[in-house]
Design brief:
Layout (H helix, E strand, L loop, with lengths): L9 E3 L7 H10 L6 H21 L21 E10 L9 E9 L2 E11 L2 E7 L13
Parallel strand pairs: 1-2
Antiparallel strand pairs: 2-3, 3-4, 4-5
Length: 140
């Protein structure tokens, strides 16, 4: 279960990067245990995304309540489909994992969005680009 959208999702990871216990630990202790501040920041970024899309396409038909949704109310308009878990590609000894959360949103019909998370920090909410771990860590 993904607590963000309260639905079953598929989690993906590469066995050469981490084992099942590590992946499950990250899901349990980080992704499904995000602090309130992180959820607040995520919802704020999703609302900004939604407001931009609705401003650019004012004729877009959207579900009741979407245009006024703010804060955690925005979560009822998303559907998480997949979560990809990554280890730092530049430092295999780094114990902090990251994730790319793919979600459909009722106001973004084409490619959906990608939520980029490092540890418990939401780095970015954007259109789906699929950069994987290279969207989370920068080469030093």
């Amino acid at each position: 279960m993904c607590v963000l959208s309260n639905e079953r999702v598929e989690y993906h990871f590469r066995e050469e990067d981490m084992n099942l216990d590590e992946a499950e630990s990250y899901i349990e202790n980080y992704l499904n245990n995000l602090p309130d501040e992180t959820i607040y920041e995520l919802c704020k970024k999703m609302c900004a995304w939604k407001d931009d899309v609705l401003t650019e396409c004012p004729a877009m038909k959207c579900p009741d309540g979407l245009s006024d949704a703010q804060g955690r109310d925005i979560l009822r308009f998303i559907s998480v489909s997949d979560i990809y878990i990554y280890r730092n590609p530049y430092d295999k000894n780094d114990t902090l994992f990251g994730a790319s959360v793919l979600a459909g949103m009722q106001w973004e019909f084409e490619d959906g969005i990608e939520i980029i998370i490092k540890g418990k920090e939401v780095l970015e909410v954007r259109e789906f680009l699929g950069y994987g771990e290279y969207a989370i860590w920068e080469e030093k």
